[in-house]
Each structure stands twice: as structure tokens, then as C-alpha cells.
């Protein structure tokens, strides 16, 4: 009786710890789902790197670097273009044009002379600072700077947590899966088959996001570059290739997507056309139309569902991508497909087994979709194979070489 009471107490403790873990995961669900997305994006690169080194830690570090390198190049390119644009704006000709445009509405020269006079008076007599009533201005500036610093630090902290999740899932995911099979999951059983199917679909869905972003970036770069060929004199898309690549990167953001890129650029072209020649307004109109139809709508609504879920219904994937951001916010573009995959595979594999426990548990879609090339890509080197258990039996369980599908951790 005491032994049973002890087991009951431990079960209660286990359920309590599970609830705490679920609560923490839901509190930071955006960070967790972002880390899960980055894990599935990095995993194919990790398996290739694992063939070239005997150290899993080195393979993870190299994989993260390879995935992050294009992002760093794009950011660096953007910063260089921004600095160059500021330098061009600071040239005498540009400032002179701006001065001429604002002259009827704003006396720039008088304002500059007033600022210089005030600065000279403050330098001569610093006590005059009390008479300038800078208290409210200083307070507002400090509030803005402190709020911006908090937002940046909070974002950096969440990115760090996501990277930690990716790192340990790549390095120790197989150990988590093996522990689960040794402890609570029967290998080849209904839960094991269900988790493998979820793992396969999540890999397709999340990697499809990156393929969609790459396609959108290339399409935008080519489209905007060709559009510049027909641009009127004095009105052109600035850094057309970079704008296209930034549009592809912005397509990962839900709902607004590449509108963060083409809307400001479109407004800039409209203002530039009005300044140079109102007769050139047709070019900003063409740019906006091409951005909406070709670069925004086609990849997001037509291509993304096909590249994101080969074993899932196209309409269901499209609904998940549409409703996810509306229901959950910025991370809904990752959480929406995750919920779809979990529910779909439960209905396909687990629910029929609940209705009829005697029916055999198989995942024919997974076996048909996993060809020999994918198996060889996912296979781990011999130096690391000792950490894994043997394959499932011949009753239809997953192949042992398909480690890419077995890492459900």
C-alpha cells in the first residue's frame, strides 16, 4: 500500500511538472515555435555536415553558420546601401534640391541661424538651459530611447532562446527520441508512427516556407530589375535586386509580408515622380501592380501551399497559413501549420486506431515518400551510429536509416 501511495505521489508530481512545462511553453510559444521552425530549416544542412565531421557539436555550429550566413550577407548589403544613400543625400546637390522644394513652406536658413544663435548663447552662459524648458523634451527622448532599448534587448533574448532550442534539438534530438522509445513509446506502435508522420510533415511545411521565401526573393529581384529597364528618366527602383531579395525575406512575416518592402518603395517612387515629372506616375502604378500581383499574390497564395505540404491538402495548408497569423499573431505563420499537422495526422493515424485497436498501424504515406536518396542523406556516419538503436521490425515500421524521420525530439 505504501509503495502504491508512493507511485501515486510521483505520478501527481510528474503531471504537475508536465503542466509547468506546458505553461512555460505556451507563455513563450512564439519563441518555441520559432526555434522549432529554425530547427527543421537547419536539419537538412546538419545531416550533410554530419557526414563530414565526427563531432555533432561541430556539425551543428557549421550548420547554423551556413544558414545564418545568407542572412548576414543580406543585412550587410542593406546597411551598405543605406549608408551610401545617406551619403548621396548629404551631397550639396540633393540638399539644394530639398531646400528649393521646402523654401515656399519653411524658412530653413532662418531656422538654422536661430539654432546657431541659441547654441552660442547656451555655450556662453550654460545657466540659460533652465530657461529653455527642456524638461519635457528630455523626458520624452529618454522614454523613447529606453523603450527602444528594452524592445531590442527583449528581441535579442528571444532570438538567443530560439538558437539554444535549435542547437540542442540538432545535437541531442536523437537521444530524446531514443529515451522516449525506451521509456514511454513502443517502437513501431501507434504513437511512434504518429510522431514520425508529424515530424515528416513539419519538415515539409517549414522547409517549404524557406523555399517560398527564396522563390519570392528571386522573383522579386528579377522582376524589379527588368522593370527598371523600362523606367522613365530620373525615376527608377533603387537597388532593384536588393529590394527583391528583401521582399523574399519579408515574405516570412505573416499577413503584411512583403508589403513592408513594396509599400514604402511605392510611396518613394510616387513622391519622386511628382518631384521630377508628374507624367511619370505611370511607373509607380506599374510597380505597385506588379508587386501586388506577381511578387506578392502568386508565391504566397499559389506556390506556398504546394511547396509546404506534399502530403497535406493544399486548401488546408492555405487556410492554415491564412488563419494562423489572424488567430495567434506574428508567430501564427509557424503555429498555424503546426496545429494543422498535429490535428491532421492524429485524425489519419491515431483516431482510426482508437475506433478499431485491432487494425494494423502503418504510415504508407511516409514510406512512399521516403526514397533512397532521402534515406542516404539522412543517414548518420558510422562513428555516430552506435548511439542509435536498431530499426523497427518487418511489420511496416520505419527504416533505421531514415534518421531524418526518426528525430521526433
Automatic annotation (TrEMBL):
Region (Disordered): 364-409
Record's protein name: AI-2E family transporter
Family: Belongs to the autoinducer-2 exporter (AI-2E) (TC 2.A.86) family.
Transmembrane segments: 12-40, 60-83, 149-170, 210-230, 242-269, 281-299
Keyword Transit peptide belongs to the record: no
GO cellular component: membrane
Family matches, as PANTHER family: TRANSMEMBRANE PROTEIN, TRANSMEMBRANE PROTEIN 245
Species per Swiss-Prot/TrEMBL record: Halopelagius longus
Location, primary (coarse class): membrane
Topology in membrane: Multi-pass membrane protein
Pfam families reported in the protein's UniProt record: AI-2E_transport (PF01594)
Subcellular localization, as worded in the UniProt entry: Membrane
UniProt entry keywords in alphabetical sequence: Membrane, Transmembrane, Transmembrane helix
Keyword Membrane in annotation: yes
